[in-house]
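Bench notes, afternoon.
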Amino acid sequence: MVSLHHDTPPPPPPAEFNMAAYVLARAEAQPDKLALSILSPTGAARWRYGALAQAVAGIAAGLRATGLEPGDRLLMRLGNEVEFPLAFLGAIRAGIVPIPASSALTVPEITRIAAETKPAAIVAAAGASLPERCACPILSAERLREMEALPPEPPQLGDPNRLAYIVYTSGTSGRPRGVMHAHRAVWARRMMWDDWYGLRDNDRMLHAGAFNWTFTLGTGLLDPWAIGATALIPAAGTKPAQLPLLLKRHDATLFAAAPGIYRQILKQHPTLDLPRLRHGLSAGEKLPDTLRTGWEAASGTPVHEALGMSECSTFLSGSPARPAPPGSSGYPQDGRRLAVLDPAGSPVARGVPGVLAIHRSDPGLMLGYLDAPEETEARFRGPWFLTGDVARMEPDGAVRYLGRDDDMMNAGGFRVSPLEIEAALAAHPGITEIACAEVEVKADVRVIGAFYTGPEDLPEALLASFAAERLAGYKCPRLYRHVESLPRTGNNKINRRALSARH
């Protein structure tokens, strides 16, 4: 049996479609239902569906009144504030293409993005970094708020395959790239409702991320709103240790966060009292089995992991109806076409590692990289888009994630996943967190290095012995380094390139 999941795609979206109008289509029937609550330990700011839809439509009308036309690009320089999703959806409703960019970007970084995307305008919060030598007008966050009450105009409907927005990859494996997504991308997210979230219209989804993270935008806001549920977002400055209080106080039924947030919560809360919570959701990086079992023991609820990427959101996950087997990331979502390929682009036998790929026909797949058609096509092998993830499909169809293709390490000619080594060493009682990377110890000599946090520096001989009991000799690290913290990207992923340079 080959590593292939060839499911029938879901029905396409309507021929005349607008992503923002679709996301808030439930507002007319339930204008007084709570759509969004921004939570702090001392209170909450609330948005009803009717007010949310009015604000988005008002911003759409306001952006058009400034002279922006459908197809123009709007660079977003907003922080962790409600104006971020309002501006994002308002632009899309008006047919304008938003470009959300992290508020943490420096002036040189945002200058490069502006030069590549050529925005017609920028919307910016006070103090946000702005591109140099950009002559386009700048709209303030205050101006956006003034637009919210404007009389709405009909949404710009059109081909669901036309460009809706541009996001930038995290750049963990190279230079950040603009990824172009169509309006249909949000329609494809419906495959996650059952096959990852178990999402219902009466759910209260608390997402631990900031507004200006695409994981929060999609999982924490767009999907709950599209089904008519309630989104709960912690206010800026909320600490992970405060999240259990918010989960309980606001009757959260679902909790979504990156693995690092689960880890920080468990450091402060060995037991959790969350009577309304059905389960947690994790994405952003691989969820270690030790962390999954730790959360389940503390909360009494499971965590369902999803695997995705900027180019296609998530497509592989565990779910309440079909939990992931231990060690795997879950199963292909219904409606997806996935394969694990060899270097020639053919599916490998099940149980054999290869590169995880998504079929070109997937409705959630990007339109392409911005102004880079050759780079876009280089990611394909025939009809398959190469994710860059190394994986193995088990006989039952579950997929075990083995790491990024460019994170894979070479040990004596064997390709080794850092995740496998990390999972083995994470069980040591003196290790709090660990990450592995290939490091150059002298010219043309590279070895596997293990970097860990913990109460104290542990003897290398002790760790080497511990590893030797759990790993084949060629997989064992050749050096160990105790560090104060592990380097991470802006999306809270382990930065293995930085690790390689740290030793």
